[in-house]
Amino acid sequence: MIKVYNFSAGPAMLPGDVLEKIKKEFLNWKKIGLSITEISHRSDIFTKNTIIIEQDLRDLLNVPKDYHVLFCHGGARGQFSAVPMNLLTDFPKPDYINSGFWSYNAILEAQKYCKPNIINVQKLSSSKKKYVENMNNWKLSSFYTYVHYCPNETLEGLEIFEEPQIKNKVFVGDFSSTLFSRKIDIKKYGIIYACAQKNIGPAGITIVIVNKNLLNNKKKSIPSIFNYSLLAQTKSMFNTPTTFSWYAAGLVLKWMKKKGGISKLEELNKKKAKILYQYIDTTDFYKNSIKHSHRSRMNVIFHLKIKKLTDLFIKEAQKIGLWGLKGHSVVGGLRASIYNAMPLKGVETLIRFMRIFEKKFG
Ligand SMILES: *Cc1c(COP(=O)(O)O)cnc(C)c1O
Fold it and tell me: Which domain holds residue 80?
């Protein structure tokens, strides 16, 4: 069997060690003779495990005490609704930053509940490179309101590395494809959310980190499974959680700790992205159209100068075990998602393949 590297944007590659562990203990979790998939979420053994998982997450991200960590349903798109539903009573006209596909989809959902103030921040430089307007220049409303944005646009490969500095505003971030890839200062945000299937584990569970001050106990109209107060009170077990995904996410968090935590992962992620972009920049055969300052570390978007070779590129890559390189249908081209679980060797193998492909067809 050839070694396969999965560059899919999500569900994405999981660390091999984690998959091995799942396989090993799948039929007999913690030696109790049952599978993790058939254990009650209310059992001591399961709830004890969730406490460990939350602590590991808090350790890795340095989550302050005045934040809840919730394990939710509904993916990131569920949060597109949950955020306005939970925050709107106090903040009637939120600011929504539009930097690309995902932040725009969050806007479409928010518009069902309110009239967001939409701020378009994706720009084109004189050399036709995409970038995001500097945060200081975002034309935020003067209301006391929340600001929703997406620090990493997974489709466009556009990342915002700046952190919010603006006082009197609650920042809400869709961190789905960047959480755990680099250090962030949780205190700068009111809410951070992320679906699991990029950097955290199999699809199913959604992480929400929310400042306790933002919980609204009085608001009755929020669907219970999206109600942050209720989820905090019930320790994310208002209804049956996605037990398997929760458990598997826990294994990924342990793996991250073993790897040396976020600063070590960030170092490695920088290195992986650097060699791939550097290679793309050295040739005319491949192109990336994002300004250096906003190139995503997790999702490297590129295309071929000879567009009609794209399908062949994907086919040939797959033949040697490089999976998931097709760009999203909305933007086309190619995309290499290089989340935490992608080893340096995977990126090096991709570059080697790209070089050979160029020699053959360039
Ligand atoms: C993947 C992704 C989503 C969608 O997540 P779902 O779990 O499918 O709802 C939303 N936002 C960003 C930034 C993403 O990368």
Answer: 17-258
